[in-house]
Amino acid sequence: GAGSRGASGGAAGDGRGGGGCRIQLGGANPHSGSMALRVEGGSGGQFDGIYAELHAPSSSEPRRISFWMRAESLANVGYLALGGLSLRESVLFFHVRPSGEAGLLSRHGYFSAGNFSRGEWVHVELELDWSAHAVSLLLGDQPIAQGVPFFTHTPSAMRIHLFNSDAGIVWWDDFVVSY
């Protein structure tokens, strides 16, 4: 869309992250088009799946990250972090829990979440307010959390990381990053 920019990324050479995440493009019921990104596995690690380095206009941060996801498992899966190589170096930390909730973890330790249905696509929007150092979450176009504090105000990098902590499968599709 307007204001969107490209990205480049990486994972381990064989499609596996350090914690055993397997990354592949597949055509099994994508949200749109003919393929979606599948992240499978997880062994308790973080930041061991795949990442995309964001290429932003000079002196600009992302204002909105929009995507569709489908979790095939009720587990600690479907992690999306924006920032560096650890939680402390990240701006936001989104994930799915075994309880059937999807939400944001705050640097203060609380989890702001809404419910989702296993095996069904859900639309997720993350709206970033860089002056307030906070993020808001919409699930299926319903406001779930507003003003969740960033983990850090100065990320060491501007990457979107996707990974699972527990064993499970999550599909990702139709990412849009707006500035």
Write the layout of secondary structure elements.
Blueprint: E1 7-10, E2 22-26, E3 36-40, E4 50-54, E5 64-71, E6 77-83, E7 90-96, E8 101-105, E9 111-115, E10 122-129, E11 134-139, E12 142-149, E13 159-163, E14 169-178
Antiparallel strand pairs: 1-4, 2-3, 3-14, 4-13, 5-10, 5-14, 6-7, 6-13, 7-8, 8-9, 10-11, 11-12
Arithmetic mean pLDDT: 87
For the report, how would you describe the main beta sheet? 7 strands, antiparallel
| Structural class assignment | mainly beta
The separation of the N and C termini measures 10 Å
Q: Name the poorly predicted regions.
A: 1-7, 11-18
* Helical residue percent band: under 10%
Question: Count the strands?
Answer: 14
Radius of gyration, taken over Cα atoms and rounded to an integer in Å: 15 Å
Number of helical segments? 0
Strand order of the largest sheet: 1-4-13-6-7-8-9
